[in-house]
């Protein structure tokens, strides 16, 4: 019996950990406790393992170095920066302003509020990167409005929960930072690879809403005229966009002639946006009324968060800043935006610091526990067990990706995305590399798959976040004076299922079309016309030519090294 346990220590250790996690024990302590317990068992059973267990008591001295590698990891500094930025923006009222403005813009069309929720979800994802903040903010702000004007409860709840989960895949996602660290790849490359899949997923959400609005228009009514407090004025907005495009075009040519064409596109676009934004502020401040109220509001509300996204992601993509530096600039930018809105206070900063500290400590403790677990797991050759198990799957690369996707999908019912990233992902790196799979592509597949963990009924975290703020009892609407029925848990789960199916389709799309991610490498280099010319050495010639190796005047030939009349080796004392 003891010999059987010794020979199968790795699968027993892994199964025991999963069991303890399913029983609800804290992740960090379960990891550390399993690592230490099985380390003791492994040392005692090592003589019975036929060499498959490589554990000894002195190996415990490696733990301090492993802990220090976590605490000194500069990449993980991006997590508190982006968390702080997201909490500040959420508490500064940015989500409320965005939802109100975009809802007014799309209000005249069927499903306009649902479109606004998805678009704002993408913007919040690109500025906050925190799912809980996005779902709770939109649940508090947009759900009562959607219920007020007769939206189907399931569709409304599903749209809010799904758009909030975009923070998982749209940069600067915290999950992408952790995945890049666990896969040993650049966070900037991970951001570039995930950008197109994230935008594609957002487009699929919008397409689903459009189809529902066409098939069942009563479920997604247009905003009534009396609710459009900003009035009309789309023409004014179109004119402002045309003016921005014209200024961008002219500025591009001016910058290209003066400073070169390398950064003329970005500088020209920045100039066009800045001019239109300043004009909108001037128009509102001086009450010139050149623009409509709707155009003013859209420009003034949308441009600051988009500028912050460009500041953070643009500097990372252009190689100007590291993700940690980009996160620091984003945190400072969030403080400035909150101060500009006159919503920056000591209580807001205190709440942001508390949330940031809580999440950062959560991540650090899980990482430290994972270091203890992995020391023992690698000592019992668990990584080789996982690699042999997955590499030998039928179907090669495709079979591996499908099996891993199914595995992560079902584990996501019970495990958080951080738990999946720290426990499962490190075990998948070696098999993926053995099969020649690009790890950035693999990481994006895992990120889209982990995103489903937020939409799984009945365990999805986004569904629980929405349940915490959705009305549980009937209430009297303060605008219409009507009694609004509550939102049931079953309606939230039912609304999540179509969006969960869309996410599963997206996993297949990313697997089937890897170039959606592979573009992060840039255009391929054409090597057909590359010529390599070796320099000639004076007095020696080339290889195999007169004066070269093995030829007259070369090494070993008359006049060569070690030959009469050639260079002589040094003699002792010279």
TrEMBL record:
Membrane-traversing stretches: 12-32, 38-63, 75-93, 113-143, 155-179, 194-215, 227-249, 269-286, 298-320, 326-344, 356-378, 398-415, 422-448, 492-513
Superkingdom classification of source: Bacteria
GO function terms (MF aspect): transmembrane transporter activity
Known function: Part of the tripartite ATP-independent periplasmic (TRAP) transport system.
Segments forming domain TRAP C4-dicarboxylate transport system permease DctM subunit: 14-516
A cellular component term, taken from the record's GO annotations: plasma membrane
Membrane topology label: Multi-pass membrane protein
Protein name, as recorded: TRAP transporter, DctM subunit
Entry keyword set: Cell inner membrane, Cell membrane, Membrane, Transmembrane, Transmembrane helix, Transport
Subcellular localization(s) per the UniProt record: Cell inner membrane
